[in-house]
Amino acid sequence: MSSQTTSQWYLLYCKPRQELRAQQHLANQGFHSFVPQITLQKLRANRWCQVTEPLFPRYLFLHLPAGQELNMRAIRATRGITDFVRFGLQLATVPQQLVAQLTAQQITLKQQLPEAGFKPGEAVNILTGPFAGLQAVFNTTDGDKRSVILVSLLGQWVASSFDNGQLAPKKPTSDA
Questions:
Q1: Under CATH, which number does the domain 8-164 receive?
Q2: Backbone angles phi, psi at 117, to 5 degrees
Q3: What is the pTM assigned to this prediction?
Q4: Strand 135-141 to strand 146-153: parallel, antiparallel, or no bridges (unpaired)?
Q5: What is the H or E stretch that residue 97 is in?
């Protein structure tokens, strides 16, 4: 209910799993808000899948430009919003540098391309586990997150299944 001289970021507390709904309804009212998100690998129905969820569950950052009136009643009545985060009677504010850093990190994570799959016959490095450092060749995929590779053991090629996180493309060595 007060006008301010500098732009400010406020912290809002949302209803469970309603952060994106609240963000959309705030945008419909002309407010700018930010919900940092993270993409994780989760097991759902016995399958690993990528899930994007809020980095800070139940929290949302609300930006009010300089001179804009803080209409707490309208914001608190927004679908998905529970209330402002407060410390006593003081509303919680978030430093602009933190929001800028989170925004930049969010953009960087979205620009990273997903890891390309291996091609049959491609040399790979085994990064972890008891076979780390052995010579191996990619053979085929084994589901979404595993691959069958051929490992050289005692002069023979043995097929074995590995988690894709344990494998990396073999980098060509430069003999200079």
A1: 3.30.70.940
A2: -75, 165
A3: 0.62
A4: antiparallel
A5: helix 96-111
> Which region among 19-28, 101-110, 131-140, 164-173 has the lowest average model confidence (pLDDT)?
164-173
Of 64, 62, 60, 61, the closest CA to residue 7 belongs to 64
DSSP one-letter code for 29: T
Taking only the tens place, the pLDDT of each residue in 94-129 is: 999 999 999 988 887 765 544 546 788 888 888 888
| CA 100/CA 14 separation, integer angstroms | 21
Instruction: Using alpha carbons, select from 90, 24, 13 the residue that is nearest to residue 57.
Output: 13
Position 173, amino acid: T
Q: Select from 44, 38, 46, 82 the least CA-distant residue to 62.
A: 82
Cβ contact 125:138 at 8 Å: no
- Give the residue among 80, 102, 84 at the shortest CA–CA distance from 93: 84
Report domain extents, the chain.
8-164
CB atoms near residue 22 (< 10 Å)? 24
Half-sphere exposure of 160 (CA within 13 A, CB side): 19
Nearest to 81 by CA among 64, 98, 62: 62
Using CA atoms, how far apart are residues 164 and 146, in angstroms rounded to an integer? 5
